[in-house]
Amino acid sequence: MTYVIGVDFGTESGRAVLVDVATGAELATAIHVYANGVIDERLPDDGARLAADWALQDPLDYIAVFQNAIPRLLSDTGVDPAAVIGVGIDFTACTMLPTTADGQPLATIPEFRHEPHAWVKLWKHHAAQPEANQLNALARERGEEWLPRYGSKISSEWFYPKSLQILDEAPVIYRAADRLLEAADWVVWQLTGVETRNACTAGYKAIWSKASGFPEPAFFAGLNPELASIVDDKMSRDVAMLGTAAGELSSDAAGWTGLRPGTTVAVANVDAHVSVPAVGVVEPGTMVAVMGTSTCHMVLGDQLRLAEGMCGVVEDGIIPGWFGYEAGQSAVGDIFGWFTRTSVPPEIHDRARARGTSVHAILEQEASRLRPGESGLLALDWWNGNRSILVDVDLSGLLVGATLATRPADIYRALLESTAFGTRALIESLEAAGVTVDRLVACGGLPDRNPLLMQLSADITGREVDVAASSQAPALGSAMFAAVAAGSTRGGYESIRDAAAAMVRPHRLTYTPNASVAGVYDALYGDYVGLHDYFGRGANDVMKRLRTLRTDIDDASLAPAPGSVAG
Amino acid sequence: MTYVIGVDFGTESGRAVLVDVATGAELATAIHVYANGVIDERLPDDGARLAADWALQDPLDYIAVFQNAIPRLLSDTGVDPAAVIGVGIDFTACTMLPTTADGQPLATIPEFRHEPHAWVKLWKHHAAQPEANQLNALARERGEEWLPRYGSKISSEWFYPKSLQILDEAPVIYRAADRLLEAADWVVWQLTGVETRNACTAGYKAIWSKASGFPEPAFFAGLNPELASIVDDKMSRDVAMLGTAAGELSSDAAGWTGLRPGTTVAVANVDAHVSVPAVGVVEPGTMVAVMGTSTCHMVLGDQLRLAEGMCGVVEDGIIPGWFGYEAGQSAVGDIFGWFTRTSVPPEIHDRARARGTSVHAILEQEASRLRPGESGLLALDWWNGNRSILVDVDLSGLLVGATLATRPADIYRALLESTAFGTRALIESLEAAGVTVDRLVACGGLPDRNPLLMQLSADITGREVDVAASSQAPALGSAMFAAVAAGSTRGGYESIRDAAAAMVRPHRLTYTPNASVAGVYDALYGDYVGLHDYFGRGANDVMKRLRTLRTDIDDASLAPAPGSVAG
């Protein structure tokens, strides 16, 4: 018997899973919650106060996951560490940090510890928007060939806006950083002593492509002369393919984890992308939807196609041999959570309590009884802007059709439907560009909690929706890549395709589109597209004007807060 | 000392007020709740079941108001009945009924009592929509000159659709009805023994004008040959001017009320319209807004102007000597009530309970702290369709700008603002047609309960908003008309102008527009108009399509219910 361990680094905690290489059976799971969590108000130990939109983490929290969760897996199962042939990890992205040449995070060096820019910038750190705006303007002006591959807009969440923010606001830190890298690659470095750059984050977050590499120094120089050499000085032009080994477990790391030194460590990966093989998708035609607070959609294709509003298309970025397309809806579960929290009257809370269930469950039950169109409502699912296909954070939510007879379950259903219409819009954008989407596989937290959403997704997209077997797809996917990195000679697999064939269990459940409602939903989708285009493509920019009014007031009422304020 | 009594017949009850003729001081108020209330499910005594949209009343409930409330006024105050020089009444409208030639309601005759069409049709009986549609189509086709005076659309609530519904669905009742008349005129008939038709309901509800009378028989014949003679056979071409005497109190009515036989009884009036002089408005330039679940707006003008979307313009219809313009917003307080009931989470209810106040008060307090534009939201106030200026019941509510940070108070404020934008739209429509609106006077239930709404109305319309002194304007207005009907020789007044000068107390409160927010509200109003025109004038009929989908489902799930179903 041989085993692999996958470690999934999330926003609040890390989750390690011990997996049987032969069958994919998940023998044990251990979760370690980050002591410092998401740092968005003050640096630890009453340090500097952070401005709005900041979100940092403590790199030592990641090491603590290895130190705590992996030993627990071994003790819980009694598995012999010698039988563990590999470790793989996946991470949120772009979650990045500055380090010294030997990988020491600047946040752990006393002279930099008080400086927010020395810490890990979490994926949802949104304070680099000015830098993103500058970068996008320059890229458009220069007609950069890579821009259309990213929906013609680089997000403030990604690698270069975050790096440029460090240079803009804390040049001392930028200069002290010998290396700037993804936390994904940093934790692999800590396990192996070897610095690598994985193809997934390089491609999706740092504008790398197999065909043309990184953006050229002249582009970076246009942003800031000091940024010109960022790739050569602080990154690496060697990008490691997914499924290869980054190195072997160092004796230090063996000490933390209880595993054997020399155990294979796979090249790092991203949580959403590593879920694709974990749900059995290794070929074009099937879209994987990681559905949670937001939803990430991935599909494979055999050629480079430029579909509107993708987050990115990267050759070998998800499964070697294919172009990986990523799209996203910036709020899904978050919209339902917002509604449940802010807009549901006491009677429904009372009913939930009386039945020992959740408000969501009561609303879902009532909404399930409605027929398509019966709510009389239609919504645009833009409570957190629109990622795909409009790539516009300034858009906002819309609800039309309310009457004095409208009930909470009507609105709840309209919100569920709106997210499914949003999914259909991005599928249609992909298909118009020649990327086929025949069916969907859903994973993440929502599919189990919201069966009505799953049925509506099938009905509205007109496609079968499978629910993945594993409830911890990212960790399983990381374990699968660990088995591939170990290779068949050590008891693993030759390819991720082989690993998927052996290690992925059949889908738990399939939602089939109900043909009898297709006509009503086609009509409603037509109206969704009408509103989507009217409010999203410039015919009426009321959402932007409302946003500007609101932001002007917010700005005026906040203290001037450039980056951070001494606490 | 001389006194007058005003009686205001509302939807659920009648309210009588005893007023000092010299000063307008309201000495006592007595309310009598209708025993049978609004009959919208079954006829009394387990009678026929009513279909959706029906709303009836029992005419004897009105008589009970005289029998109960007026004696209470006299006993509560000890006023000598001989000192009461007049009685005036106002009523909801169009609230109408079929009677025999001597005024006996058909509903009180055993052979007709089981038939819903024999009962009083309350103003909010909405089941005559097919008849209204037929009437409007024919009027458009014939190019009837009167149609533009009513916003180019006759409401299903008004006199002829209701009459035609009787003929369509219960011809026996139509034929048995020697008279068809407003309940307003019917109660005056019961007090005096004299049948009159007041100019206000004739003008606003039965398409009468001083210049051209009623629609011609050929028009009615086009709807149904049997309807051709409705005016001559079942109504009257004699229309009585407001402020004149309908007759004197009969001995029967003196017996019910404790008043002296021979006491002057004024010609009937309508609750909203009679409020105009009651708040001191007897000249053009000031709009009176009766603000409650819905809002009715009235303003006087010196000429006939055709402004878009008015409910009606009637010469002498409000104050003799002027053209009375009426406009309306079909939901105002109802929208805030809907929101409070359906969309406010338990925390806010708990906070209201803890502070011993209402949810409205908590929301208002929080919403008051927001600056204009800070909510980031904009709404169309069409939760119950749009009366003025689009005259379209199929329109529905819209909210744009929601984000994950949107709170209930943000939405509450946006809803308040939306109704003020709606008021501004109808003011601008009037002014574009040449009807001046320099300031507003608000009365009804909302001004006291919702000071923020009043301030927003001033800020958004850019006009001062006075709050009327009397909290029972309709009853006071009826009392004032009673004093005019009695005339100066009996201790009353020569004209309603004189009565207003003496009997109306100064406004309690004035809300002044805040100049510093005018710019933001002009910008938001621009966006309101943009959405109003896009969704309301045919560019995107999504609201109608949603309504049709919803209605189709409702219709399919209801039993076939033509008018009524035997219970």
Structure description:
Two copies of one chain form a homodimer. Chain A is α+β, with helices and mostly antiparallel strands and 567 residues long. In chain A, 39% of the residues lie in helices and 18% in strands. Chain A is built from 20 helices and 22 strands. In chain A, the strands form six sheets. In chain A, strands 1, 2, 3, 6, 10, 11 and 12 form a seven-stranded mixed β-sheet that branches. Chain A has a seven-stranded mixed β-sheet with strand order 15-16-14-13-19-20-21, sandwiched between helices. In chain A, β1 and β2 form a beta hairpin. In chain A, α2 (129-142) crosses α3, α13 (359-368) crosses α14 (408-432) and α17 (473-486) crosses α18 (496-503). Chains A and B meet through α11, β18, α19 and α20 of A and α11, β18, α19 and α20 of B. β18 (397-402) of chain A pairs antiparallel with β18 (397-402) of chain B.
Low-confidence runs of chain A (pLDDT<50, min 5 residues)? 558-567
Global outline of chain A? globular
Major sheet of chain A: size, sense and barrel closure? 7 strands, mixed
How far apart the termini of chain A lie comes to 55 Å
Rg result of chain A: 23 Å
* Quaternary state of the chains: homodimer
Number of helices of chain A: 20
Helix percent of chain A reads 25-40%
Average of pLDDT of chain A: 95
Number of DSSP strand runs of chain A: 22
Largest interface, C-beta closer than 8 angstroms, per-chain residues: A-B, 52 and 52 residues
Structural class by secondary-structure content of chain A: alpha+beta
Please indicate the percent range of residues of chain A in DSSP E strands (runs of 2 or more). Answer: 15-25%
